[in-house]
């Protein structure tokens, strides 16, 4: 009887883990490799930007990113991408992947004006 209970518990646990690992955010960047972990805009912002910046509803560092200023300072997403990828994060400029930089730019550009 004990073995059956343990077996059922393991099956349920595996099912729960599988269900959780398939959850994807609406703000997901899918790479060409289907086996690669999807990168979410929020994940990248939390990992790489939050130390110095806050944006929208995400609170973090001392410098609050202002969406109006972003849209005024950068004429399009491409110019914002060039700035961010060449200058951020301040402690290690250029250290993120292209997908991570694109996620941050998509997040920032999508903030309400």
UniProtKB/TrEMBL annotation:
Residues 36-112 form the Cytochrome c domain. It comes from the Bacteria. InterPro entries: Cyt_c-like_dom, Cyt_c-like_dom_sf. The keyword Signal applies. The keyword Protein biosynthesis does not apply. Residues 1-19 form the signal peptide. Keywords: Heme, Iron, Metal-binding, Signal. This is Cytochrome c5.
């Amino acid at each position: 009887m004990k073995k059956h209970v343990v077996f059922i518990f393991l099956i349920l646990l595996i099912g729960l883990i599988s269900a959780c690992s398939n959850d994807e955010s609406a703000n997901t960047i899918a790479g060409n490799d289907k086996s690669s972990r999807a990168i979410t805009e929020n994940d990248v912002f939390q990992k790489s930007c939050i130390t110095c910046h806050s944006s929208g509803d995400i609170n973090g560092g001392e410098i609050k990113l202002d969406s109006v200023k972003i849209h005024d300072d950068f004429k399009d997403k491409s110019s914002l991408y060039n700035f961010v990828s060449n200058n951020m994060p301040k402690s290690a400029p250029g250290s993120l992947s292209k997908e991570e930089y694109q996620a941050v730019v998509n997040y920032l550009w999508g903030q309400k004006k």
